[in-house]
Amino acid sequence: MRGRGKTAPVEQTRFAARDALEEATAAMLARPARAALTVLGTLLGVAAFVAVLGLTATASGQISQRFTALAATEITVEDAPEDRATADFAFPSDTEQRLTALNGVRAAGVFWRPTIPKSEGSESGALVSARPPSISAGQGEPLTVTAVSPGYLEAVHARAGAGRLFDSFHERTGQRVCLLGRAAASRLGITRLDGQPAIFIGPTPLTVIGIIDEVDRQSATLLSVLVPSVTATDLWGVPGGLEGEPPKVLVETRLGAAPLIGRQAALAIRPDQPERFKVTVPPDPKQLKEQVDTDLGTLFLALAGICLVIGAVGIANTTLVAVLERTGEIGLRRSLGARGRHIAAQFLTESAALGLLGGLVGTSLGVAAVVGVAISKDWTPILEPLAVLPAPAVGAVTGLLAGLYPAWRASRIEPIEALRR
Q1: Nearest to 220 by CA among 145, 282, 275
Q2: CA separation for the pair 200, 130 (Å, rounded)
Q3: Is the four-CA dihedral 395, 401, 406, 411 of positive or negative sign?
Q4: Strands 204-214 and 198-201: what pairing?
Q5: Which residue in 333, 338, 329, 350 sits closest to 407, CA to CA?
């Protein structure tokens, strides 16, 4: 029997990672304009990704700060007796003094909407006019009339744009004066107070001594006519019965004192009937901040994802065009021994490199955008490391995924067919 001879082993074609990187770099440098436009899609996507996440964290910090400064220091005490028909006026005349004596209370004031007779008002609010009833002939603006004590003005941080706010003297002596919110004054056509203008709530005249231009809480104040509580009691009676809204007390506390004051307020106002009051304290600021962060983060993360998808489509489109244009080059490489996986690796490396480059530049632009906006708004920029550091890798992964289909198309090209083209 003839012995079998040994066959020489076939040398396998090798294509190292270094070779793929060199080929990808050469392809990008050969077409710099196209590479720059391709990078632009991922650059914008990653920049938007970093910017929106950074701005979300920064804005959430500002929301948390404002919530802590205002809402976390606000308590409302409402008179809620079991039988309103027979209930008397709940708040004693020294309610403000009783509450401000508590350690942690900055200001406190009673407020309610008086029950104005129907002949003096309308269903949507009291008819208020800047002219006497004999001239206005029953016409006027339906505005909200609110009885408040001076402590209420302090608690809402009311600031007069014209005139002055009423004080304890007007309250104690029952002066026939009032304050107008900015919007209410505009509707009545009152812009100046040097002529001592008066308004008429039905037939009742009140002198306007101030126009409230700004408040930090209870923004409905700007749409209202504010009357001293003693004056409102003399004109329209104490709140009570089934008609009208129940009286309330607005309490401003020091930061962190709201839970304690919420437990002490009812007992301080009426030690004999603390159970008749409903005390509303602010929610936990930490819980609210987490809810705001979650809502804003979900929204902006979705927008950033859309930006990344747009960038991925741009890379995929450009890489696919490059495959079609370089069909001859691919055929030549295949005829020289390159396999399909080598061609696929070359185009995947190129698309991943483009994505990485766009991710690096986009991350830098996103960080610069967050810092720029924070400086312009006088905010403190907040950038989470988990949102910034992985951003270039996100760009690279985006480019890699975008290049899967073009790389697969390139790996399926046959050498003879490619050379014919």
Answers
A1: 145
A2: 6
A3: positive
A4: antiparallel
A5: 350
Asked if residue 60 has pLDDT above 80, the reply is no
Strand ranges (E), 193-276: 198-201, 204-214, 224-228, 248-253
Q: Do residues 344 and 407 lie in contact, with contact meaning Cβ atoms separated by under 8 Å? A: yes
**Rounded to whole angstroms, how far apart are CA atoms 251 and 215?**
15
Report the alpha-carbon distance of residue 163 to residue 194 in Å, rounded: 8
Euclidean distance between the first and final Cα of the chain, in Å?
A: 51
* Secondary structure of residue 152 in the 3-state scheme: helix
Residue in this structure with the two tokens 């008179």, named with its chain if needed: 79
Confidence of residue 11 (pLDDT cuts 50, 70, 90): very low
Q: For the segment 293-320, what is each residue's pLDDT rounded down to a tens digit?
A: 666 666 666 776 777 777 777 778 777 7
Give the ranges where 237-339 is alpha helix by DSSP (H): 258-269, 285-325, 327-335
Looking at 5-9, 115-119, 321-325, which range is the least confident one?
5-9
